[in-house]
Amino acid sequence: MTGLRASHVAALERLYRRRVPANEVLSLDLAKAAAQLALEIRRPISILLTRRGVVQEIIVGTEMVLSPTTQAKFRTGPRSLRGLRLIRTQLQDRPLSQEDLTDLAYLRLDLMGLLSVGPDGTPGNIYLAHLLPPDGSGELCKILKPSPLPRCPIVFDQFIEDLETDIQQALKHHAVGGKQESAMLVSASSRSRAEQEDRLAELAELADSAEVTIVDKMVQRIPAGHQRYLLGSGKLKEVLIETLHKGADMLIFDQTLTPAQARAISEMTDIKVIDRTQLILDIFARRAHSREGKVQVELAQLRYLLPRLSGHGTQLSRLGGGIGSRGPGETKLETDRRRIHDRITHLEREIKDFARHQDQRRARRERHGLPVLSLVGYTNAGKSTLLNVLTKSHISTENRVFETLDTTSRRLRFPEDREVIVTDTVGFIRDLPQELVGAFRTTLEELQEADLLLHVVDASAPDIDVQMKAVLDILQELGLDHIPQVLIFNKCDRLPAQQADVLCLRYHAIGISALDPDTVKPLIEHLATRMYAITSGRDTASPDLQAPDPVLASPV
Question: Whole-structure pTM over 0.85, yes or no?
Answer without folding.
Answer: no
